Amino acid sequence: MPDTARVALVTGASGGIGRAVARRLAADGMAVGVHYAGNRAAAEETVAAIEATGGRATAVTGDVADETAMAEAFDAVGTAFGGIDVVVHTAGAMVLGPVAEFDLDALDRLLRTNIRGTFVVTQQAARRVRGGGAIVTFSTSVTRLAPPGYAAYAASKGAVEAMTLVLAREMRGRDITVNAVAPGPTATPLFLDGKDQETLDRLAAQPPLERIATPDDIAETVAFLAGPGRWVNGQVIFTNGGIA
Q1: Would you say residue 194 lies in a domain?
Q2: Domains held by the chain: number
Q3: Backbone φ and ψ of 73, nearest 5°
Q4: pLDDT tens across 164-196, in order?
Q5: CA 230, CA 179: separation in Å to the nearest integer?
Q6: What is the CATH number of the domain that holds 105?
């Protein structure tokens, strides 16, 4: 009997927002490909957490900017579960610093991961996602907030937004939605690392809802776009609690 369950591939799913997204989509009944770049043990923990609640998942790896590696990751998920319906690209890098002092080698690495990586993953998704599916990329609210020190990162995510909106139009006739999610401050281990309580309190005071987002908050938006949100297409969804 053929497998008719929907299948998702989530990049960067070994921790943080990616892990929350993988678990949320699994809770919606999807089989999930849990992609990781370097932390296999963490990815396997995500798989185990999904399987412990009755879901299905498999871990796959690869440099998101390497087209061969990502083709193999997509192949592995398709082979394991019979195809791919949803691709969520949460994987990315962040390097901060003022324009005047920014290391250009670090800039090249950042752009390779965030721009080329997004292009490679969405290229594979555009070739493989089945009708009725969804492609979700990740931007950031700092593309609008423009805080000092974020020029390189915001520029890379501005490129993500541009390619996402173009791809939505290129999918005409395929019944595939393409959107970007742009979180604000979110309480991942990476985000919290090195921040004192005063800084966290200041960030929590920014949105009218007066708190920092959790990864599950962001995962809820992704689940909507990947599931019932079929009439939302070609949009950047600022998931930040109302920060101006």
Answers
A1: no
A2: 1
A3: -65, -45
A4: 999 999 999 999 999 999 999 999 887 888 888
A5: 11
A6: 3.40.50.720
pLDDT one-digit tens code per residue, 71-103:
999 999 999 999 999 999 999 999 999 999 999
**Enzyme catalytic residues:** 153
Which residues 6+ apart lie within 8 Å of 13 measured at CB?
A: 19, 21, 22, 32, 34, 35, 36, 43, 46, 90
Report which of 79, 59, 65 is spatially closest to residue 18, judged by C-alpha positions: 59
198 domain-assigned: no
End-to-end, the C-alpha distance of the chain in Å comes to 51
Are 238 and 136 spatial neighbours (Cβ–Cβ below 8 Å)?
no
The structure tokens listed for 150 are 């974020």
Residue 205 lies in a domain: no
- Higher pLDDT residue, 241 or 191? 241
Domain that holds residue 109: 7-184+215-238
pLDDT tier, 142 (very low <50, low <70, confident <90, very high otherwise): very high
The two three-digit tokens of residue 238, written as one number: 């600022």
pLDDT of 167 reads 98
